[in-house]
Amino acid sequence: xxxxxxGAIDDKLLKKRLDKALxxxxxxxxxxxxxxxxxxxxxxxxxxxxxxxxxxxDDTFSSLMPETTAILADWDSTTEPTxxxxxxLVADMVVARENKTIGKVATRVNRDKPGTRSLFTSTARxxxxxxxxxxxxxxxxxxxxxxxxVWQAMxxxxxxxxxxxxAAALDLKKNSDGSFERQDEKRRIHITLLTRTLKISFLVTIxxxxxxxxxxxxxxxxxxxxxxxxxxxxxLPFWTSILVRTTAWIAMLQSQGxxxxxxxxxxITNDDSRFSLIYNQLGTLIAMTHxxxxxxxxxxxxxxxxxxxxxxxxxxxxxxxxxxxxxxVYAPQTVPGIGAGAILVFIVAIGxxxxxxxxxxxxxxxxxxxxxxHMRKSLNWNLAAALGGVLMxxxxxxxxxxxxxxxxxxxxxx
Amino acid sequence: xxxNPLVRFKNVQKSYDGKTLVVKDLNLDVERxxxxxxxxxxxxxxxxxxxxxxxxxxxTHGEIYLDSQPINNVPPHxxxxxxxxxxxxxxxxxxxxxxxxxxxxxxxxxASESQDRVKRAMDMVQLGGFGNRRPSxxxxxxxxxxxxxxxxxxxxxxxxxxxxxxxxxxxxxxxMQYEIKHIHENLGVTVVYVTHDQSxxxxxxxxxxxxxxxxxxQLAPPDALYERPENAFVAQFIGENNKLRGTVTELEGDxxxxxxxxxxxxxxxxxxxxxxxxxxxxxxxxERVLIDPDPSxxxxxxxxxxxxxxxxxxxxRTRIELLGRDDFIVKVPNSANHALMREGDVVTVGxxxxxxxxxxx
Lengths: 414, 361
Description:
The complex is a heterodimer. By secondary structure, chain A is mostly helical. Chain A folds into 3 domains: 1-43; 60-159, no CATH class; 190-410, Orthogonal Bundle (MetI-like fold). Chain A has 19 helices and 2 strands. Chain A has helices at 2-54, 60-64, 66-74, 83-98, 102-112, 117-127, 134-141, 148-158, 164-169, 190-221, 224-235, 242-253, 258-265, 281-305, 310-317, 322-350, 354-359, 367-376, 381-405, and strands spanning 172-174, 180-182. In chain A, strands 1-2 form a two-stranded antiparallel sheet. The longest helix of chain A is centred in the first third of the chain and has 53 residues, at 2-54. Chain A starts with a helix and ends in a 9-residue tail after the last helix. Chain B is of the alpha+beta class. Chain B folds into 2 domains: 7-232, P-loop containing nucleotide triphosphate hydrolases (Rossmann fold), CATH 3.40.50.300; 240-359, CATH 2.40.50.140. Chain B contains 8 helices and 20 strands. In chain B, the strands form 4 sheets. Chain B has a 6-stranded mixed sheet with strand order 6-7-8-3-9-10, with helices on both faces. Chain B has a 5-stranded mixed barrel with strand order 11-12-13-20-14. A 5-stranded antiparallel sheet of chain B has the order 15-19-16-17-18, with no helix packed on it. In chain B, a hairpin with a 4-residue loop joins strand 12 (255-260) and strand 13. In chain B, helix 2 (96-106) packs across helix 3, helix 2 (96-106) runs parallel beside helix 4 and helix 4 (140-152) packs parallel to helix 5 (170-187). The longest helix of chain B is centred in the middle third of the chain and has 18 residues, at 170-187. Chain B starts with 6 loop residues before the first strand and ends with a strand.
């Protein structure tokens, strides 16, 4: 008993000494990575977290129209708006007009009730001259101010925390009673876009596998000298800008491009019925497959390189034909490489932006292009953030499924 | 040599680069039921011979016969030869039982018979009950046994083994040597075994083919190989050996006299010498050198200086300076009344003419 106690004390002491001895090394290692860590926090993690919160937090209306927001909070959305509410609205509009922020307010409300943008901008111009009773005078300026739906839209817009953007990203709309229902069929664009994005990514992955597997096999079985040369050829596209490669595909595939010219020359098609190989989904598929091919070849190659030729030889010596030896013995051992390559290509493809933007046309663009659109053109950053969040959740889910089915441990990058 | 060997190499040559021959004009018969070992240093062509026999490398010239049928154009999977690889080559994604069933499955054997055979094969290598394990869950020795069982499960007439014990530690290797030897004896299967480990070859084989430089230097049973090496390479490669170089000055029948550079005349058995005046290498096993022998019993008697004594229990390894060489080794048995020596002592050493073999230069 006494001995055990003594042993325990010694253990603690030993642990303490060990920690002390390791502390220097640990702190050294920590200080070495501090600059990078700070850079990542400021330039990568911070913006992403901030941006993802934008999908839930929207203080445009509440910060620019504070009084209206306060009074709308007490309103039950069904009773007729009171004279007091109209008075506060006019007061806020006057301030917003002076601060030149009325446009933002108008845009924000317009998202919840389309067609109300000009209602705000034109009324605001006259707001300073309006006199009580404000209810009558506002309705006098625009009849629409009597419409309760405009007030409901304002109440929705005034909420600082909202699920509305995620709902919009999933083609749902929020009813005035707070429940969600599916968007009108004509306006369901995001789900269509998401399925198209998944479909294109899936097809690109399949094409990369079909084209990359034989190349990787060849590279892994050739003598080192030849295979190194070929590996450089595989890597060569990595050293060329994606923009250049995509533009090269435009030159190749456009209707007056090299491929169509050749097809016409060989009489496969005639001059007035050239194939449209680009500015559609086909163009996106071709260009993305080409660009992402190395991501498939490299993991496959490194896995295949690690399979000794003696396995296939053993299978043959045991009586298996070339075909059986390949399918029963070789191919199963390349599964980790297939898994790694496929998940790499798929994840890069699902967020791909520049190639679909350049060659995608109408039906070949992907969700990232729409996100970009909301970032730069419609300036609806909240919806962009929500779409980004949806995309992230989809990728995480697929990753999780992959882990359950194949196992991340089975993935081998080299 | 019987008229109908199981394997016959006839004038077989092999070149990988079209310039140098890795195997030069190989002629070799492997008899039925024999355990034949190809022994040699790396790059001597022994593994290439095995690969040609298995069908993984084509012969550049010559013909290989299996059961009197030429097999140069028969693909490996139709040769019906079992093979054990250096790294075992057990399929990692299959269980032990699946590995063993693989050759039966590709032969379209019925499930019940296949199960039967797999069970018997596992019992043979004392691995009954391991059928559901993956190869990675087995120790090196167990993997080795599975590899042997897999090569035998489809009852091939011939099994090739390519340095199968190379990855095992010393004790396990010795144990496996006996196990493989016993399996060979019990099944009567023909084994062609490749190794660079001479003690392995000596332990297991019926006959050993010593390879060097693409040529079989000597093909003989283990005892003959050790006691009657036919050339300097074999003498040096098999077991420990003392070398003395000199010129043949007398040659009469089976015996000759070789004069070393120091001018001493050594009486030796002429095994592989041309004529008087030729250079020759004398080969002398360390355990055949006697310290302070009775002068009337030995033909060779010289003075030597003791340089180093290493105590090894059953014998004392003694390095002496003799006839101008300072790497001459004598094994002095640790018997009741062996000579006591100290470093620096000058002693008389001697050996029988019979034990000293005059070989090629």
